[in-house]
Amino acid sequence: MDVSGRTYPQLALDAQLCFPLYAATRAVTKRYVTLLKGTGLTYPQYLVMLVLWESDEPLSVTSLGQRLRLDSGTLTPLLKRLETAGLVRRERDPGDERRVLVSLTEDGRDLEEQVSDVPQELGASMGITRDEALALRDQLTELVDHLDTADSARG
Amino acid sequence: MDVSGRTYPQLALDAQLCFPLYAATRAVTKRYVTLLKGTGLTYPQYLVMLVLWESDEPLSVTSLGQRLRLDSGTLTPLLKRLETAGLVRRERDPGDERRVLVSLTEDGRDLEEQVSDVPQELGASMGITRDEALALRDQLTELVDHLDTADSARG
DNA sequence: CACAACTGTATTGCGCACAACTTAATCGCG
DNA sequence: CGCGATTAAGTTGTGCGCAATACAGTTGTG
Fold first, then answer.
1. What's the mean per-residue pLDDT of chain A?
2. Backbone dihedral region for residue B86 (phi beyond 0: left; psi -120 to 50: alpha; all else: beta)
3. Is B57 contained in some domain?
């Protein structure tokens, strides 16, 4: 942690934001493994289910991807696993055969009740108040917005 | 985003901290791809190099793993790629043949100067002040500490 | 010294992420 | 209508993360 005397002190691991961010995501994901045990879901699969539970309509792969910022290379195999698990259906849109519509099965819908306590349990594991969590959420959301424009703009 | 009328409003994607955290990490990683282009490093490889640049001594795989919270299943192939790239050496510790000591080559050491502007460039992409970044860093560090104890304690 | 317990690293297998590419369907424009 | 451009999803290949396992080397104990 002693950064004095280094040629490039800004490169110290503990001086940067990126590492705690990276570590926090992995720690949260690891906690979800425990919390989702019994549902058979991975954390990315859980996120997909969250989006589907929010939606009244079947969603295309692209719209799921826009919501979660994931592309078809990630979603297609993930959705196939959810289909194999019997939680979702994948059907070509009759009105546009390029699109695949993803909808919940009865089992998929039923799973929502089983995970309804997960957010609160995770919150308890994080050791911060609800207000702190919401403030952090907003800061990170802003960060994502900036980074998205930054990377496309500055190349 | 309208959460009213849902049976489980706490499951709304936008109500939770986990998703912005996950999205922010991926956005940062994506930005690093651009910033590290020319070094040949991936973001996790860059983190390993940060730790090695900080150290005067060769480090074992385990001590690298403790610093970065990564295990040998992740580090071994990553270090082999860094070795192939000519940036590090991997040698068994003569004093304890179980251990593999990782040290920088001349090329590896030289790379530090090439990335010395990366932290500042990333900071500029995030659209937050240095103080905000440091506050965020500290909050996330605390989060990680809590989650680590939570997952081992509550199983 | 013998040997069980432990430690450090490597290997295997699975599931993301994502870039790059392919294929099929649709759209737009003359 | 014909046909090039665009769009949507799927495929391929690379590199993490990490649990589970294997295994060689080391340590502790009698």
1. 94
2. left
3. yes
Total domain count, chain B: 2
CA distance linking residue A153 with residue A155, whole number of Å: 6
Angle at CA of residue A3, ends A147 and A28, nearest 5°: 45
pLDDT tens digit sequence for B9-62: 999 999 999 999 999 999 999 999 999 999 999 999 999 999 999 999 999 999
d(CA B112, nearest CA chain A) in Å: 8
Per-residue pLDDT of B62-102, as tens digits, reads: 999 999 999 999 999 999 999 999 999 999 999 999 999 99
Contacts of B142 in chain A (CB under 8 A): 127-128
B60 and B132 inside one domain = no
Asked if B81 CB < 7 A from strand D, the reply is yes
- Structural domain contains residue A144: no
Q: Which domain holds residue B89?
A: 13-116
Q: Contacts of residue A19 in chain B, CB cutoff 8 Å?
A: 47, 50, 68
- Say how far A93 CA is from D4 C1', in Å: 25
